[in-house]
Write a structure and sequence with these properties.
Radius of gyration: 24 Å
Mean pLDDT: 94
Low-confidence stretches: none
Helix content: 10-25%
Shape: globular
Length: 495
């Protein structure tokens, strides 16, 4: 339903927010301006944004728009402040230009970030005097007859036929609205219909907007410094605003998007001239799997066997082999992958072994150190009677975690960490306060949650991994935060 409140059905003419699918429209705008000689993808972003720190001299637009720039994600940065971001594109730009350092060496790896796309939206304005919304309407949407498509440029605008987004709550639903007071364009923000988006997909064949040269750039995989593709998945590489790769052996161009309660995905198979797009307004929807099922209905005879589905079926077929409490006790602890900035914990609850990574997942014993986690992951422990390594395997990859010594704290030892810590990059002071024998984090006077001790001088808060730092005398001087799309965010102890 487009509106549960008013009983309005969802149709092919319903307008929905497509989240990060919007990036391809921003990419088209930048590449059209490059074609006109107004910039080069190999220009450093600091040429157009001199207010960026000096490290941005080495960050090109090609890197900024291919998720290989190292730019810290502005949304993740904002999430560390304790404040709800209530700005627009200009305010988001301000967060990005204050970013003190990159996440990693330019071109070293792929790590998704929205920041380059925010700058790209403002670049369009700096070069043309038109907002990205105006430019896209004049140069893309109007020429293709996409009359119900627009960049979300005004949070108070009335949008005809727009859907309301929802998230499940128990047996009912709640409205899942845009959390920003302002309109942020570039990384997302496009509102469109399935009918209109079909016109856009057709443009990849005709090149009526942009031309074939621009489309070729958009659909060519980016290379890292070591010449390997910038992988966004096992069979996917990132190009410029798009993923390129294969689905069951068939070449595909794709992208997904999510924002508030909206979910979207599309697949385009150039050789078969087949495209599938799935949009929805339910936060728990799976538009990517639905798109693959629909694609298989039309071109399944040209696809290889679904190896991911076969792998999951094979894993599900392995019978449970109950294990003893002593074995489970040896598997409990804290596990780290330093490169990814991730920590997982294993705990025993009675006769059950649990993995905790945000949510709690029961590990079903399969024998020989193997466990099934949910429907699509296998856990394997290695390294002797008390394993030192944990391998988390999915149908697409395997991630290695190494055991970290578990920290044992008393209220007195936890109290030593209490204090105030400052980061000027995000203009935020975080306070660590003892409450009821637990450490609690406050950011800008807002309670953010409990800090959970993991390994020595290591804590978890939500998805953030926090590592305390000490001087040569053992005094705590600050900490670094690893939080998904932001790495090594440094806080200095000020009190």
């Amino acid at each position: 339903m487009a509106s549960l409140e008013h009983g309005v059905p969802l149709t092919t003419r319903t307008v929905l927010d497509v989240g990060s699918i919007s990036k391809q429209f921003t990419a088209m705008a930048i590449l059209m301006l490059e074609k006109e000689g107004r910039l080069s993808l190999d220009d450093p972003i600091r040429k157009h944004f001199p207010e960026m720190p000096a490290y941005a001299d080495g960050v090109t637009w090609r890197r900024a728009l291919s998720q290989t720039s190292g730019l810290r994600d502005f949304r993740t940065l904002s999430g560390q402040t304790g404040r709800t971001f209530a700005g627009d594109t200009i305010d988001a730009q301000g967060v990005i230009t204050r970013s003190a350092e990159p996440n990693y060496v330019l071109g070293e790896r792929y790590l998704y970030t929205n920041s380059g796309w925010i700058l790209a939206a403002q670049l369009v304005y700096r070069l043309t005097g038109k907002t990205l919304a105006q430019f896209a309407e004049e140069r893309m949407f109007a020429p293709l007859g996409m009359r119900d498509t627009r960049f979300f440029a005004d949070n108070a605008a009335v949008i005809p036929h727009v859907a309301t987004a929802y998230a499940p709550r128990g047996d009912a639903f709640r409205v899942a609205r845009n959390t920003y007071d302002g309109a942020i364009m570039g990384a997302g923000g496009v509102h469109t219909t399935i009918e209109n988006f079909g016109r856009w997909l057709g443009n990849y064949d005709t090149g009526a907007v942009g031309g074939r040269e621009v489309i070729s750039v958009m659909t060519t995989a980016t290379r890292l410094n070591d010449s390997t593709p910038a992988r966004s998945g096992a069979t996917q590489a990132y190009a410029v605003g798009l993923n390129v790769g294969t689905v069951r052996g068939v070449p595909v161009v794709s992208l997904g998007g999510s924002w508030a309660g909206f979910r979207a995905h599309f697949l385009r198979f150039p050789e078969q001239r087949v495209a599938v797009a799935t949009f929805g307004n339910h936060s728990a929807a799976g538009p990517d799997s639905l798109a693959r099922h629909v694609a298989a209905f039309y071109i399944g005879d040209r696809m290889l066997a679904d190896s991911a589905a076969l792998w999951r079926a094979s894993l599900a077929a392995v019978p449970e082999q109950p294990t003893d409490v002593a074995t489970m006790r040896a598997l409990t602890g804290v596990w780290r992958n330093v490169a990814r900035g991730e920590v997982r914990r294993t705990r025993r609850a009675g006769a059950t072994l649990l993995m905790i990574a945000g949510a709690r997942t029961r590990l079903t014993p399969l024998g020989a150190g193997r466990y099934r986690a949910g429907a699509d992951a296998e856990i394997r422990f290695e390294g002797g009677a008390v394993p030192t390594r944990m391998f988390v395997r999915s149908s697409s990859d395997t991630v290695t975690f190494v055991r970290a010594d578990t920290a044992l704290h008393t209220p007195a030892t936890l109290a030593a960490y209490a204090g105030e810590y400052r980061n000027e990059e995000i203009e935020t002071t975080q306070k660590w306060v003892m409450e009821k024998d637990q450490l609690v984090l406050y950011a800008n006077e807002r309670r953010q949650g409990t800090l959970e001790p993991t390994y020595p001088d290591g804590f978890l808060r939500g998805e953030s991994v926090i590592d305390l730092q000490r001087d040569t005398r053992g005094r705590i001087t600050g900490y670094t935060v690893q939080s998904g799309r932001v790495r090594n965010l440094r806080f200095t102890r000020v009190r």
